[in-house]
Amino acid sequence: MGVLFDECAEHRAGTRVHLDRPFDIDASARTHHTLPQLATLVREAAGWLAAAGAGPGDRVAIVKDNHWDYDLLACAAARIGAVPAQLSAHLSGDVLGTLLARLGPALLVTTARVLEHGRKEGTDLAAAARATLVLDDTVPGTLGMDDVRGHIAPGPHRRHDDEPLVIHHTSGTTGVPKLVVHSTRTIIGKLARFESVRLPHIGLRRGDVLANASSFAHGRTFCWTASTLCMGPADISIITTQAPNLADPVLRAHPPTVLEALPASFVRFQPLTEGLDNPFRRVRVVISTYDAVHPPTVRAYLRASRHRRPVWVEGWGQTETGPLTFRFHTRRSADRASGGAGTRNLGRPVPVKTRLRVVDPDTFRPLPSGQAGLVLARTAACALGYVGEDDRWSAKRHGTWWNTGDIGARNRDGSIELLDREVDRTPQLSCLRTEDLIEARLPQVLECVVLAESGRDPLPVVVTADGALDQDRWKEAVRDLPPLREPVALTWDQVPRTGTGKVRRRELLHRLTGRTDTYGSGRWT
After folding, report:
1. What is the pLDDT of residues 457-491, one digit of tens each?
2. What's the total number of domains in the chain?
3. Alpha-carbon distance 356 to 313, whole Å?
4. From residue 214, how far is each of 106, 133, 388 by CA, in Å?
5. H-helix or E-strand spanning residue 351
6. CATH of residue 449
7. Most buried residue, 87, 101, 287, 437, by CB count within 10 Å?
8. β strands within 22-177, DSSP E
């Protein structure tokens, strides 16, 4: 990864990159780049990190505003032999402090805003690192860009394929995220290389215009960066915001043929699908990861495309494993889900690469088709471990199998039906299926979250544009469902979320009820 941009600039130099705002590390403030320009920026950044004291084997923590330059900085760290740890600035100050204490980085690369945010919450983030490099300002006791700019980086450092390459954190929906260590073999050799195959219909083509609206601190985009650049599409558009009015100009200037985004971004951008000149009219492939996207949203994007047969590719996996299953949606299959059948069928395991089994949570004995239990996975792409939490990692390993912490059932065709996270489950119903049904029946609901609370009926939370809900329509929508408590209606911004847009269910439950106890054990979170 340290020479990725150099090699791709040499062999795929025609790719153009378009940004919705300039990189935080680019003094020229350009919003359009060629691959040779990006390769130069990575080499310069490698010089900055070396000048700040980072070297082979050191951990370099990166915490900043959301942008693709997370991966440019990670590649710069890899170039000098360091191990980048990408941490989302969306995390709270105390959580960032905990993660940095586990990492013990030689260098923290961050911004003045992040440091100030930590101080306001009572955490001195810079204290965890041997040195701190601030990208955007002068902060006493830290290095600024004037201290490191212009330094020449040493030659690229090569490491063994099984040595740590990069550290990413999990989403953190149930508490403090885990720090996941991947090697070159696992995240590049097993994951990125698999995505670099030009598969019929869904594979990336040289003439494609690819748009990505993601959380660039997470492992998915690090893998995506490696595979996408090697495939050499015509254009890449980077969207850092979930505000549709800010994303729209870039999308319209470079209408994508391949679109990847966070589930939350798909929901926020959905109003853009409604016009005849919508920016998604050329899309032939849509890619979603991190979490399921509800059927109404899937249908909206597939219908917005004027392509003859657009395909929605849904991947399910975890930071620790990469993708474990794939499922494909077409206009026809999405319409079949219009009654609320949902998108919780995760599809079949990735051929050759992945095996899945469903087991009893108490005995870990395999269960027959149709019976719900813990989903275990076996994959050669499994990470090396958790930083500072060896016992937690060991608890999730069962021989050669990895405990996903999800409750699901195997269908007769071999596909997996996802029911709930083990920690979020309730005996009355599947929270996830119920959410799908409610969203299908109430189009004005942007998102539904069913919260399980021990000893009480599940609590439904509905997100609407104005935080209001028609009670008569609600009663009609849930008339045939198991008992639910009276719904709570909120706006999008009132719901606590992770950097990838997932709902922090335990935090939301605490805000609304003052409690966090659920039916699940939480042993495998």
Report:
1. 999 999 999 999 999 999 999 999 999 999 999 99
2. 3
3. 19
4. 28, 25, 27
5. none
6. 3.30.300.30
7. 87
8. 32-34, 59-64, 83-88, 107-110, 131-134, 164-169
Among 239, 306, 243, residue whose Cα is nearest residue 270: 243
Residue 245 CB partners (closer than 8 Å, separation 6+): none
Q: pLDDT tens for residues 8-40?
A: 999 877 999 999 999 999 999 999 999 999 999
Classify residue 147: in a domain, yes or no. Answer: yes
Q: Three-class SS string for 424-436?
A: HCECCECHHHHHH
- Please give the DSSP secondary-structure letter assigned to residue 316: E
Strand-pair partners of 407: 374, 420
Same domain, 55 and 145: yes
CA-based R_g, the chain, Å: 23
Residues in Cβ contact with 320 at an 8 Å cutoff, skipping those fewer than 6 apart: 170, 178, 180, 382, 383, 396, 402
User: Running DSSP on this structure, what letter comes out for residue 153?
Assistant: P
CB 47 within 8 A of CB 77: no
**Do the bridges between strand 179-183 and strand 209-213 make them parallel or antiparallel, or are there none, so unpaired?**
unpaired
Taking alpha carbons only, the member of 92, 65, 64, 63 closest to residue 507 is 92
